[in-house]
Amino acid sequence: MHVLLVEDDELIRHSFATNLERYGYTVTDAADGLEGLELFRAADPDEPFDLLLLDVMLPALDGIGLCRRVRETSHVPILMMSARGDGLDVVSGLEAGADDYVVKPVETGVLLARIRSVLRRASWNPAPSTTYPAPPTDDVLTFGDLSVDTSGMTVTLADRPIALTPTELKLMLEFAARPEAIIDRHTLLRDVWDHGWDADTRVVDLAVQRLRKKIGHDRIETVRGFGYKFRR
Known about the structure:
Helix content is 39%, strand content 21%. By secondary structure, it is of the alpha/beta class. It has two domains: 2-123, Response regulator (Rossmann fold); 137-230, Arc Repressor Mutant, subunit A, CATH 1.10.10.10. The strands form three sheets. It has a five-stranded parallel beta sheet, sandwiched between helices. Strands 6-7-8-9 form a four-stranded antiparallel beta sheet, with helices on one face. A three-stranded antiparallel beta sheet has the order 10-12-11. Helix 2 runs parallel beside helix 3 (63-71), helix 6 crosses helix 7 and helix 6 crosses helix 8. This is Response regulator transcription factor.
């Protein structure tokens, strides 16, 4: 797995890179957001980055801006790092399209677990395509003009493909498998993010917001005090 690490603190960058390489990852690192963006865009299409690990506070182009620029063209898994776990950094990173975040300082074991979780969500997600073969009927769940192909891992709205990130796709599959059922946030954290009960439920709320923008706001109902319900 090839990781693009963008971190301006030299000591932290070296420590993260060394630890990731020790566990078998290939690491390319950058000290600011613009350098990171250039490295991402210059990557060999046949050997793209498998994961972006981005600090929020970066010179030249901050991690939020870098995340947004990457999301314009790619669904590569993105893990944000923030020193302010209770601040706007976390929310802004997730709204920009990040799949998850960690708060610095972070133990190596926790960082590796979060990376593996994000990569697992992406491992079965095919690259977005503008054309789809006709899938077997049994594998297609239809909700009005919204169709979810659980075999081909694709989603269409009014016969047009919807480009979803790996996290958004897995979230969509969870909702489609249990229409009209109320699913609490901690269940979604466990099943989609592989997180335990003490994880931050903001990742769920913001991922649902992003998914609503793509499939329609009225399809996912907020059940106050409980969680969410996908409407047929």
